[in-house]
Amino acid sequence: MRVIVTGGGTGGHIYPALAIADKFKEIDSETEVLYVGNEEGIEKEVVPDNGYDLKLVTARWFDKKTPGEFVKTGIAVTKGIAQSKKIIREFKPDVIIGTGGFVCVPMLMAGHLMKVPTYIHEQNAFPGLANRMLERFVDSIFLGFPDAAQFFKMPQKLIEAGNPVRRSFFTISKAEAREKLGIPQDDFVVFSFGGSLGARKINDVAFELAELFNGHEGVTLIAGTGKWMHEDALERLKEKGIEIKENIRIKGYIENMDLHLLASDLIISRAGALSVAEVTVCGKAAIFIPYPYATGNHQYFNAKYVADKGGAILIEENDLNTDDVVKHVLSLKNDREKLMNMCKASRACAPDRALDIICGKIIEDCKKQNM
Q1: Cβ of 65: how many Cβ atoms within 10 Å?
Q2: Structure confidence at residue 371 (pLDDT)
Q3: Which of these, 54, 59, 44, 50, lies nearest to 10 by C-alpha position?
Q4: CB atoms closer than 10 angstroms to residue 168
Q5: Which residues contact 27 (CB under 8 A, 6 or more apart)?
Q6: pLDDT surpasses 80 at 301
Q7: Rounded to whole angstroms, how far apart are CA atoms 7 and 256?
Q8: Using one digit for the tens of pLDDT, what is the confidence trace for 56-75?
Q9: Contact (CB, 8 A) for 284 and 261
Q10: Between 228 and 290, where is the model more confident?
């Protein structure tokens, strides 16, 4: 089987695509996978590091604010479609699956025009513009959240799957993760992060917790500040006169996200689809602070899905008060039964079978086509 996966710009699109690629290879080691991305995204570094061949095509975001910008997008997409057709002719894929980002548009439209079976995976509870636009060009749409169904117009194409999560999240225990990271097994562990670039509001919360828990026996705080905000974070702590003790870890970039999530008791983070999927797969209580400027406010809907089921506390950024977040953290630290109930509710939201559903459906369709 020959598979093209495409999706780019951010880890939220790239890592689900890689998880799908890995699953196809797990099912059949002879499967050939090609990743198609765009020059602007981080896929240039991430995809080769994960062992997959990468081709780049021209693509551009949608901007209807001015006629000039809209024309630029049209030119880029047209060029990208031509490049995608060339890739399809050379690689001869059996299927193409896109996981979001504007790079999917030329690749999936080219696949449709060349009569290759095409699929979309939509990670968010509020679908992105590209995926909504591509709805009529694809064979099926896999949903990360069931709430996304209301925003599509062709229900016969929709399949509830959940969000794909890498295999490592299912194969390492909490105790093993703590051992690998050098965290005491009995500590109450809080892990805050705002993505690879960081989030100032979440860092503000982390600073309050660092001051509160610094040197506190039985508690570990890990704060992923984001690489752009790391130096600023250290300087702010220095200005406050906080001399960081061993139980406080301030990191610019989190390299082993699976280990850090699995080792934690409580997560404080944004609510991107990938983060929500990984938090729930790990069965962790969370305080979600959605990024308020995400398209369609989709992070709010992602967080609400888990919060409504009791697995998370949802705090909108406009309502954020760091003292209130600290109170929530202390409440969960001191009430382990409440914490465990949240963890169980979080785990119940987890997309356990996402990869089986996605890859199983695609393989089944391929078999029917070849009969």
Answers
A1: 7
A2: 64
A3: 44
A4: 12
A5: 359, 363
A6: yes
A7: 22
A8: 999 877 666 666 666 777 78
A9: yes
A10: 290
